[in-house]
Write a structure and sequence with these properties.
Number of helices: 11
Distance between the termini: 34 Å
Strand order of the largest sheet: 3-2-1-4-10-6-11-13
Number of domains: 1
Order of helices and strands: HHHEHEHEEEHEEEHEEHHHEEHE
CATH architecture: Alpha-Beta Complex
Structural class: alpha/beta
Helix content: 40-55%
CATH superfamily: Spore Coat Polysaccharide Biosynthesis Protein SpsA, Chain A
CATH topology: Spore Coat Polysaccharide Biosynthesis Protein SpsA, Chain A
Strand content: 15-25%
Shape: globular
Oligomer: single chain
Bound molecules: 2-acetamido-2-deoxy-beta-D-glucopyranose
Mean pLDDT: 88
Radius of gyration: 26 Å
Largest sheet: 8 strands, mixed
Number of strands: 13
Length: 335
Amino acid sequence: MKGHCERMSQQWWRVIRLFFHNGSYRVKLVCGVLLVLAILWLANRASFIMGWHYDPNEPKLQGSRTCNGAHRYRYTVLLNTWKRDDLLKQSVAHYSSCKGVDAIRVIWSEIEPPSESLLLTLSASVFSSSKTLQRIPEFRVDLHDDDNLNNRFKPIEGLETEAVFSIDDDVIVPCPTLELAFSVWLSAPESMVGFVPRMHWTDSKRHDTSYRYGGWWSVWWTGTYSMVLTKAAFFHKKYLDLYTYHLPPTIREYVRSERNCEDIAMSFLIANATGAPPFWVKGRIYEIGSTGISSLTGHNHRRTHCLNYFSALFGRMPLVASNVKVVPAYQEWFW
Ligand SMILES: *[C@@H]1O[C@H](CO)[C@@H](O)[C@H](O)[C@H]1NC(C)=O
């Protein structure tokens, strides 16, 4: 039996060798190119030939509203900006071009309202960036009369979606990455879903329970996190109400006066409500403009203080650690 198989394969090799030794170079080249083209064509059509077709709009047409009338398969971008008009223009143009964006709401906390010309430029860029989409996102600037970091979590009028995507004006998340994160949120609408993970470590050197803020380096090293920062994260709009009306007022006061840790406060609130960790979604995000607050020295020290202060006010540490990182299945095809 073995000899038979060997003979068979030898014969096949002879056929192949004959072809390559005897044919002229031009014929070989043409055949080679044709072969490559055929393989590419097959790979491209495989889904079609096998009947693996899925129309992503189908469920959206059937059950596109929740029982409260909100758009289920869209989200609102809550864009937090502060005195950086050029960055604002860039991010408004970018997020207008992403599928699934229902509205873009800019959180404006400067004393001076935005100028006419800035508003005109922004509206025009929303219009031109969303040309290839089926609909133009709604665009609004919500004015706040004080410069307060809590403004970014104030409930706003006229939200048409349950999902909000909270983003800083200097962070760009590519549209496909955003869509992946939104589909994760649809699977877990109570949870926070984001791209910038952080950790609370328990400090073993101290006798009382105390926590230490873990930055990018520690999360990368251990693959463990318990928060995702609200500079780029999805969450349910009900948490805006909870943050503004049910969080201990001392925490909001601390955030206002220290101009820091609003994202830690939101992570505490959601972890306390769900008893579960957030989701970290894989994806490269881009910071435009100059470096932000996190590069200032002493930043982690202040964040550590927030962890300990907030957990004392909550009466416990609500954050839950996780090792889950969501990746798109088509990237991890070799399993
Ligand atoms: C934490 O969750 C509990 C139980 O759901 C709730 O009663 C409490 O008000 C929450 N605490 C804060 C500070 O939100």
